[in-house]
Task: inverse folding
């Protein structure tokens, strides 16, 4: 239910189709520029996108249970 993939040089959020029960996703310290492909994660409550290349906060409306968003 928790996935830590911080500091891996990831440039795109993808491949989470099979992780529908994920509750916490830690993607900080990567090279992500667009928030996308999260609509599969309907149980997601915590999303950490700190220290990426994101310039626009968007595409989070598909996460009805999201409680915590960390982004800087």
Result:
């Amino acid at each position: 239910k928790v996935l830590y993939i911080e500091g891996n040089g990831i440039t795109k959020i993808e491949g989470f189709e099979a992780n529908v029960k994920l509750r916490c996703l830690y993607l900080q310290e990567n090279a992500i520029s667009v928030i996308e492909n999260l609509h599969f994660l309907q149980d997601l409550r915590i999303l950490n996108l700190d220290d990426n290349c994101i310039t626009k906060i968007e595409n989070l409306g598909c996460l009805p249970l999201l409680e915590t968003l960390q982004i800087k």
Remarks:
- The chain has a mean pLDDT of 97.
- The two ends are 24 Å apart (CA to CA).
- DSSP finds no helices and four strands in the chain.
- Residues 21 and 43 are 6 Å apart (CA to CA).
